[in-house]
Fold this protein.
Amino acid sequence: MVLNLCGHDFHYECENLCRVFYPNDPVRIVRDADDPAALTSRMQQTDGGFVLSAAWDGEREDVFVPADTPQLRDAEELAASLAIFRLLQRRTRYTPPWGMLTGVRPSKLMITLINDLGEDGAKRYFQEQLLVQPEKTALAAAVARQEDRILQTSKPDSFSLYLSVPFCPSRCSYCSFVSHSVNSPSAKKLVEPYVALLLRELEQCGTIARELGLRLETVYVGGGTPTTLSAEQLAAVCGAIARHFPLGTAREFTVEAGRPDTITPEKLRALKEAGVTRISINPQTLNDDVLSHIGRRHTAAEAIDCFRMARRMGFDNINMDLIAGLETDTPESFRRTLDGILALSPENITVHTLALKRSSRMVAVENARARDGAAVAEMLSDTQRTCTDGGYVPYYMYRQSRSVGNFENVGWCRPGTEGLYNVFMMEEAHTVLACGAGAVTKLREPHGKWIERIFNFKYPYEYISRFDELTARKARIKAFYDEYSI
Ligand code: SF4
């Protein structure tokens, strides 16, 4: 579709809103054009204020904003969105559960609003101004309460450590991460030199953190699938973390075991002996047909066996990831997946909504189209009911662009087992020192909100061939803390 903006530049919100209603249509923005086929969003000055209108194909919606409205620009942007929302809602007969809210962190907005307006006022704002449905408003408020409590525990000298292992046993069809399938001999050859350099980068970052007197809160080893590494390589990586960082203060040490087809007793033993406190086993679904459809090379039974093996070996904090909206999955089979996961009683269950990323095989090669949001809505409502009845609380939430139906990703946990890194990272609570290809170090001002990023090279071959450049960039960490002292 063509979106024609006249008299304003609120293109971000307007474009995102069009995508909510027409997820499969690319949106092309034009400005001040005379194009009768376009959806035209216009701002015009009138007596005493401004009219924000949306017009398309003979239909039109107007929203008036008085000139003396406080925070006028925000109000104009909201009015432009509202006009488009009403027009598209009428045309499509679809009412998005998150209303006009298109941002990626609804709970962050909810925390800010609670601080300004109190919880009742914040909920009213969600429902009356942003048109968020009561079920999603309640979810955002519940997450905000949990996140706020966790965020209070982060201090000016806190930091977390993130490690990237960008290798997987094969590539899932929906994946848009920089992750190399070790099925290819060229990728396989990269693993050993990659691990050797990762150990060096860990040593460098550990030395910097020690010299600055930073306090380690959480460690997260993600990817890719870290358990693609051998048991010996995992032991070496975890051993380097223990040697170079003060694990004594860390409240959580997570490794994404991720794919059940990479998990062995030897690897779990290596993780346990290294002091890993939380692992993630991510079946995504317990429907074998769907697993095969998305390119996974394991069955639901194998995922369940892995979980039981980890339990026997003493892992008492396990997360399991699921995805709602996978092709060929249905609300009924998703419900069976939920029941199967609940029967295992993991401490955390993270339910993502499928996002159709352009770089994924599903979109780039298989030309997948966004499916009907109603089926995903049913899956997520079921999740909310089932997890709540099962004694789980929602503790973190984010949304991705291009997620089916503009829905959310939510981490559920048994009280007291929240994945702390997820909250600290999502809300940018403190510095994250990040090692490995594609990792991004985020330096957060200790007594303020300023964030500075240091990017590592994205691909493993660049990480290996330009490693010295990358370690030179890390010198900025000390300079940052000299400028913004703890
Ligand atoms: S396991 Fe995760 S990172 Fe690896 S290919 Fe699948 S989605 Fe991508």
